[in-house]
Amino acid sequence: MTLLKKRLLWCIPVMLVANAARAQLRFASLQDIWAYAEQHNIQLKSAHLNGLIAGINIKQAYGAMLPVVTATGGYTDNIKIQPTLIPEKLLRPNVPDGVFTEATFGRRFIYNGGIFAQFDILNIQDWYAIRRARLNDAISRFNIANVKMGLYQQLADTYYACMLLTEAERLSRENLKTTTAIYELADNKFHEGVISEATINTVLINREKAGKSLDAATQHRQLQLNNLQLLLNVSDSIVLTGNPDEGTLTDAEDSFPTDPAIKLSDARMQLSENELRNARAALAPTLSAIYQYNLQLSTSEFLKSKDGNTMPQQYWGLRLTAPLFAGKTRLYNIQKAKIDYDIQQKEHHHTRLQSDINNKNLLLAYKASLKTYEKAKNILALYQSNDAHATRKFNEGIISLDERLKSYSDLIINQNEYLQNMSDYFIQQYLLKIRQTNFVE
After folding, report:
1. What would the pLDDT profile of 335-354 be if each residue is shown by its tens digit?
2. Span 43-65, mean pLDDT?
3. What is the mean pLDDT of residues 130-157?
4. 397-to-192, 387, 390, 401 alpha-carbon distances in Å
5. How far from 198 is each of 195, 273, 412, 420, CA to CA, in Å?
6. Residues 103-123: pLDDT tens digits?
7. How far is 139 from 151, CA to CA, in rounded Å?
8. Where does the signal sequence lie (predicted)?
9. C-alpha–C-alpha distance, residues 248 and 255, integer Å
10. What CA–CA distance (Å, rounded) separates 157 from 227?
11. How would you label 154-180 residue by residue, b for 16+ Cβ within 10 Å and e otherwise?
12. What gap in Å lies between CA 69 and CA 99, rounded to an integer?
């Protein structure tokens, strides 16, 4: 083998390992996942882009208060100018009345241009439009906070589901090892005629169940990892290296930042109040200053102004516009705005009450789930100890196979309770973490 071939064969596994490393994302904690999602999640990116639109709307509302300047221009080709009848007496006084002659007025080519400017000196609705844009910008920021909070909950739910299934895999792997060892001993006793076929079948069933539980936990964990890929908007495989008990809030605080839902409700209530005032302002007059300049050029030849006639016009003035009657449309708008404002006030009060109660319930549920989970770990350790003792006694021939199977059955039942308590604790823990995070920028 040549030196070049040896180098190529050595480089191939190195390249494969490098590609595998690049195709993996490793996260050591839930906080790492949250930080990564801040930059890559599609829903969160869309919410931020909508926030930029809301900021542009504020500038647009201010721009509506600037003067409006319009330039116009036109060109007319009078291919045939219509004649006009004029009394012949205007030209020759001696001609009797009733005699007319045809005369043509005007020139063939007409060029005109103009500038018109209008500035609203007093227009109350413009100020309410600016406040509406500012409130919508605040609503957009609170919506971003709500989107982020919802995303954090989805990520936490998926992350802890993976952690729970990892623990289920570990327990199932231990169970499979235990049931395999029991089966090997029981199989020998079955062939020796010590135990019945029903007993060996029970041992075999336990081993198959342990294998099935291991396969199910592995499959469901991979499904959760796939869901995590979707939330993070990545195609690379994900590896979680964190400890499920990491970040336990042993001393949970009872202080919470202002709920984004309350801020959002308050902004919507203010927006509704602004719309009511804006509806009332529609009854107020508008005062505007206007200016206009027009210029008309008439010629007999196309694009030749040497012998043309120039006729300028210029004026400025004040214009007062007051609504008098529009079929009571504005009054109906005021009535609808009043009803909407009343609804928003009631919803805002309910949102505050609901947030306060949710905070109390969340804290109580977390503390209860923590105590239960701590006890569940201790109880599982005792069951595992009992099962280890039963294994030793069974191997030494002190207890029967039925007693050994009963000890294993008790362990399996407790494992299910332990996993359920762990799941409850994980849920309450991440809900409390998220609620105690300030999402409003």
Report:
1. 999 999 999 999 999 999 99
2. 91
3. 93
4. 15, 15, 10, 9
5. 8, 77, 20, 31
6. 888 788 899 999 999 999 999
7. 18
8. 1-23
9. 17
10. 11
11. bbbbbbbbbbbbbbbbebbbbbbebbe
12. 50
The DSSP code for 246 is T
Phi, psi of 230 (to 5 degrees): -65, -45
* Planar angle of CA 112, 118, 119, nearest 5 degrees: 160
Amino acid, res. 141: R
> What whole-number distance in Å separates Cα of residue 289 and Cα of residue 119?
5
Name the residue among 278, 274, 280, 260 with its Cα closest to residue 344.
274
Tell which phi-psi region holds residue 193, choosing left (phi > 0), alpha (psi between -120 and 50) or beta.
left
Per-residue b or e along 299-324, where b marks 16 or more CB atoms closer than 10 Å to that residue's CB: beeeeeeeebeeeeeeeeeeeeeeee
With 0-12 / 13-18 / 19 or more C-beta atoms within 10 angstroms meaning exposed / middle / buried, residue 4 is exposed
Confidence band for 10, pLDDT divided at 50, 70 and 90: low
Is residue 33 within 8 Å of 155, Cβ to Cβ? Answer: yes
- At 97, the pLDDT band (50, 70, 90 cuts) reads confident
Tokens of 330: 């504005």
Give first-to-last CA distance, the chain, whole Å: 64
Q: Are the CB atoms for 138 and 260 separated by under 8 Å?
A: no
Q: Which residues pair with residue 287 across a beta bridge?
A: 122, 320
Residue 93 in tokens: 């006084």
Contact 109, 234 (CB under 8 A): no
